[in-house]
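Quick start: what a row looks like.
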Amino acid sequence: MTFSIPERNSAALLLEVDNLRVGFVNGRRVTEAVRGVSFTLGREKLAIVGESGSGKSTVGRALLKLHPSSARITATRLRFCGLDLLDADAVQMRAIRGKRIAMIMQDPKYSLNPVIRVGEQIAEAWRAHHHAPRSVARQKALDMLDVVRIREPERVYSLYPHEISGGQGQRIMIAMMLITDPELLIADEPTSALDVSVRLQILALLDDLVETRGLGLIFISHDIHVVRSFCDRVLVMYAGRIVESIAAAQLDQARHPYTRGLLDALPDLAHPRPCLPVLRRDPSWLTD
């Protein structure tokens, strides 16, 4: 299954990131997890790919200041719709998180509160930014469950997280993040725990929501096959740095040896190989 890229106006710049650095303090030692990352985002689908530990999720969380207070986050520029995120105080960030920038976490089973019904969690996400009766929030949540194609929304509203499937859980997370009508959506491995058929349904849903709502999307993923057909642009991260930025449709023309190594290691059913190549890393990738 492939996804067509709709014509959209990406001229409106949503996000500007210049020389973003994130370090974690451990005693007297600072470990740099993100080192000098720079990119811009319009109303488009931007993928960030790389191995585990490359810094993909760290970038996404840094945009929302979700790291512990001990983390050191610096940047030459970190602006969202003209607002300086680095200088934003706690009150401003509470108004931005969930309302204007939403983040779909990797595994809904761990992101949802296990002792609260899923519908109430969606309704609470809306009430956090609107002063309205619970009955209004409930109806908003039911409407959103319908938008994300949940069957029998009334029944699912009353279920607990352990009573839903992986695909339902991911749809509920999407509903919770989109109920506030954000301008930017960060999706952190939203399909990694799903089987192939459900994965395609979730991607088709995201594609439709991004197109109809005109969102900017940062899609964090390991799956280069999905990224190639789903996103507009790709940032390839290695050891906390962006080593290549390329249009998704041109991934086969990538030049950096790390990107080439990732592509070469992909299995191909049309051309099976007895053994997939192992990526050979070069120390110069850390500094070049």
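That is the whole record. The chain is about 35% helix and 25% strand. Residues 44-54+95-286 form a domain with the Rossmann fold fold (CATH 3.40.50.300).
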